[in-house]
Amino acid sequence: QVQFVESGGGLVQPGGSLNLSCAASGSIASIYAMGWYRQAPGKRRELVASVTLGTATTYADSVKGRFLISRDNVKNTVYLQMSSLRPEDTAVYYCNAMGPLTYWGQGTQVTVSS
After folding, report:
1. Sign of dihedral through CA atoms 93, 24, 30, 75?
2. CA nearest neighbour of 95 among 78, 75, 109
3. Where are the alpha helices (DSSP H) in the chain?
4. pLDDT, tens digit, for every residue of 40-86?
5. Nearest to 67, CA basis, from 28, 30, 19
6. pLDDT digit string, tens, across residues 3-24
7. Contact (Cβ atoms closer than 8 angstroms) between residue 31 and residue 24
8. Per-residue model confidence (pLDDT) at position 34
9. Are residues 108 and 40 in contact, defined by beta-carbon separation less than 8 angstroms?
10. Spatial separation of the C-alpha atoms in residues 66 and 43, rounded to whole Å
11. Contacts of the segment 1-6: beta carbons below 8 A, 24+ positions apart
């Protein structure tokens, strides 16, 4: 099993910034990628960004140029720097780890509203 400690969600005005972090522990030796997904009310969960052990990154088209994902392999932590936030970025953001199994964090709410 993999456990996560997620932090950094909250309320921000449009155009603002938020930083999310997710620290993983437990059976992490087999994890090869970590990332963030989000789910807005009434919508499917979608990939926001992911990063592999080799630091290859993937971003959803909607966040390219605004979000930056990074990973500290020593701390087993993945970060998501979000800037130029829009109301449509409002969602619950879930930390994700990929290995032989897929693991999910409990989620953190991000609300972009004036």
Report:
1. positive
2. 78
3. none
4. 999 999 999 999 987 899 999 999 999 999 999 889 999 999 999 99
5. 19
6. 999 999 999 999 999 999 999 9
7. yes
8. 94
9. no
10. 21
11. 1/26, 1/27, 1/103, 2/26, 2/27, 2/28, 2/31, 2/97, 2/99, 2/103, 4/95, 4/97, 4/103, 4/104, 4/105, 4/106, 6/93, 6/95, 6/105, 6/106, 6/107, 6/108
pLDDT of residue 29: 84
Largest CA distance in the chain: 42
Query: Residue range 84-109: average pLDDT?
Result: 95
Per 3-state DSSP, the chain is made up of helix, strand and coil in percentages (nearest 5) of 5, 55, 40
Q: Contact 17/68 with Cβ under 8 angstroms? A: no
Instruction: For residue 81, list its beta bridge partners.
Output: 19, 68
Closest CA to 62 of 86, 39, 36: 86
